[in-house]
Design goal:
The structure holds 2 protein chains of 2 kinds.
Chain A: H1 2-23, H2 30-42, H3 44-66, H4 69-89, H5 97-114
Chain B: H1 2-30, H2 38-49, H3 52-74, H4 77-83, H5 86-97, H6 105-123
Helix pairs in contact in B: 1-3, 1-5, 5-6
The chains are: A mainly alpha, B mainly alpha.
């Protein structure tokens, strides 16, 4: 299930990126944003990306219900490195050693953040 | 244009984290569904639909998704995805000061590592890699 989760998350993001590269540079203006919204609705890559991200959400929820969060979470942390690797292989992006160091620091940081206890507050006291 | 990417990244992170905090706050108020029977699930959905925090969360999360798409059209995936980890930085501050959660030293160390990593990744963004 963790493998399904990783594949869905990375493929989803890659398909979204591919779809947006096909649409081209989005201009920040009312007509530009309206045009981009219309193009994204019509893009098959974007819809496939969204389906994969829905698959990620479902597999993530299933994975955390089956296994401890501390077991599932590292897959999310290493997703940043996997995504960078896929950007090189699939989208032929150039990634410098400095960017790799940045990605490694992010993975390490996310791993540390994820080791925090998932529940530290009493939810019963929240005001409406 | 690098400034435009950074501004859009800030917008994405604020909308995403704000949306998730509002969602978390709203879901905690609504509580868990009593069971997974259709009527219990319907009662849960009805209670969620009447929660104002969820109505704050949904437009913010939609705006964050759209801004992520815009970022994909502007900058390489190998910059956008790692830089989106900034969510952890803003999210931790939001959890600490808005949701009043306890944040451990280990988590703050993680946030510092993520911050340094994101800055390093953004420094590698050359103007030639940004679509015009």
């Amino acid at each position: 299930m963790v493998l399904v989760m990783v594949v869905c998350a990375n493929t989803g993001d890659l398909m979204l990126a591919r779809g947006m590269k096909q649409i081209g540079h989005v201009v920040i203006s009312v007509p530009g944003l309206r045009h981009a919204l219309w193009m994204t609705i019509q893009s098959a890559s974007i819809w496939i990306g969204i389906l994969f991200l829905i698959g990620f959400t479902l597999s993530y929820m299933t994975a955390v219900s089956w296994a401890d969060y501390s077991y599932v979470m590292p897959a999310g942390a290493f997703g940043y490195a996997i995504q960078t690797m896929l950007a090189i292989v699939v989208l032929h992006e150039a990634v410098s050693p400095k960017r790799w160091i940045g990605v490694a620091l992010i993975c390490a940081g996310v791993l540390l953040v994820g080791q925090t206890k998932p529940n530290t507050t009493n939810v019963a006291v929240l005001p409406s | 244009m690098t400034r435009g990417v950074i501004a859009m990244l800030v917008f994405f992170v604020l909308c995403n984290t704000g949306g998730e905090i509002a969602m978390s706050y709203g879901v905690k108020q609504v509580g868990e569904p009593q069971s997974f029977r259709p009527m219990a699930l319907l009662r849960f959905v009805w209670a969620a639909a009447r929660n104002r925090w969820l109505w704050v969360a949904i437009p913010m999360l939609a705006a964050s998704f759209y801004s992520l798409l815009i970022l994909f059209s502007w900058a390489p995936v190998s910059v956008v995805i790692p830089a989106s980890a900034s969510n952890y930085i803003v999210g931790t501050f939001g959890a600490k000061y808005l949701l009043k959660e306890d944040v451990s030293l280990k988590r703050w160390l993680g946030v510092i590592l993520v911050s340094v990593g994101v800055v390093l990744v953004l420094f590698t963004l050359k103007s030639g890699q940004i679509s015009q």
